[in-house]
Amino acid sequence: MKIPYGRQDINQEDIDAVIKVLKSDFLTQGPEILNFEKNIASKVGAKYASAVCNATSALHLALAALDIKKGDLVWTSSTSFVASSNCALYLGADVDFVDIDSDTFNMTPKSLQSKIQEYLDSGKTLPKAIIPVHMAGQSCQMKEISEIVKPHNIKIIEDASHAIGGKYRDQMVGSCEYSDMAVFSFHPVKIVTTAEGGMITTNNEEWYRKIMDLRTHGITRDPNKLNRTNMGSWYYEQLELGYNYRITDMQAALGNSQLNRLDDFIKRRHQIAEKYDKGINSKFIKTPIRLEETYSAFHLYIIQLNENCTQSHTEAYNYLRENGVLVNLHYYPIHMQPYYQNLGFKEGLCPNSEAYYKKSISIPMFPTIKEEEIEYVIEKINSIH
Ligand SMILES: *Cc1c(COP(=O)(O)O)cnc(C)c1O
After folding, report:
1. Pocket of ligand 1 (CB under 6 A)
2. Atom of ligand 1 at shortest range from CA of 133
3. Could you list the pLDDT tens digit for every one of the 385 residues in the chain?
4. CA 199, CA 37: separation in Å to the nearest integer?
5. Contact 302, 330 (CB under 8 A)
């Protein structure tokens, strides 16, 4: 038996949707992209959505829309994929990391508040933006976080790469009720896939327009923005240094088809989580907790080894993999990566992220996992000692 930690679910409708585009006039820059954007915006309850080629470029453009540049500072969580902080470095800005909470694995109001206090006490300038990461699909406590940063005029970009379909205080993650923008990833291990793909949602028209321009080289055909007039209908102008961060219509069609099953995906993930909650009854293992005001998208189900466990983290990890339970680890703290260590980040910066890494394991979580596979995973986990 070989059970991966995550896997896409592609059905015949998904395949047909992609083939239909392949036979159409537009492989890219066509109508499916616009449909995908409309569908996501309406699903999550945001005014605007911009589809791009992956979540890494989405994070890059979100920060660019806020005019983050050299000399500015961005904070994120060290327990995340490196893209959450690389995006600030692309723009020449500096980054720093807010520690996570040991129970939710998220940046919390408390850890954010204490980081702000630390900066104020030492006379350092606060960040222009923060990027809270909804780890494993469970939303950060955005209401409190937004109340904390408001007086300091700090912008918020949610890294919701794990969290499409999740809810916070009865609203869909991505509605931007308590943030400025939110970013989703559609990589195959995530909840909804377009192979590679990403999306930025916002309620701010100015940022939306800026993102749309930067997505295509900083080029515009909007008559209101052009410097020169009467140049002919072929004419466009480059007004800024942008990128080619476009998604294709094949991918957008796949995304549209997948979105039809988003609610089913999340329901199924919760079913699996509940089976794990009940079945994993070892005193050596801690299962993940959920906050009352959140409905997780359950991108990941992360277990942790308790201190009384006699097997080491590596032993338990290898034991599961050798038995075909292809577990994974999300994440080695970003500030511990060699690239970040070379920038001057030191061990000890985020004690909770560092401790989290030494005891956590992501176990199989994907909609098509079979019942006997769930049972098998539970049995193997319960035999860790
Ligand atoms: C996957 C992921 C990203 C990057 O997504 P891509 O679409 O692969 O660029 C960013 N942040 C987090 C938290 C992720 O899990």
Report:
1. 54-56, 80-81, 83-84, 133, 159, 161-162, 185, 187, 198
2. 13
3. 899 999 999 999 999 999 999 999 999 999 999 999 999 999 999 999 999 999 999 999 999 999 999 999 999 999 999 999 999 999 999 999 999 999 999 999 999 999 999 999 999 999 999 999 999 999 999 999 999 999 999 999 999 999 999 999 999 999 999 999 999 999 999 999 999 999 999 999 999 999 999 999 999 988 889 999 888 888 999 999 999 999 999 999 999 999 999 999 999 999 999 999 999 999 999 999 999 999 999 999 999 999 999 999 999 999 999 999 999 999 999 999 999 999 999 999 999 999 999 999 999 999 999 999 999 999 999 999 9
4. 8
5. yes
Alpha carbon of 54 to ligand 1 centroid (Å): 8
Token output for 199: 């999306």
How far, in Å, is the centroid of ligand 1 from the Cα of 382? 31
Read off the tokens for 235. 């004419």
Q: Are 4 and 362 in contact (CB under 8 A)?
A: no
pTM: 0.97
Long-range contacts (CB closer than 8 Å, 24 or more residues apart) made by 99-103:
99/349, 99/350, 99/351, 99/352, 99/353, 100/135, 100/350, 100/352, 100/353, 100/356, 101/352, 102/352, 102/355, 102/356, 103/289
- Ligand 1 centroid distance, CA of 381 (Å): 27
Location of structure tokens 């539970």? 378
For ligand 1, the distance from its centroid to the CA atom of residue 89, given in whole angstroms, is 16
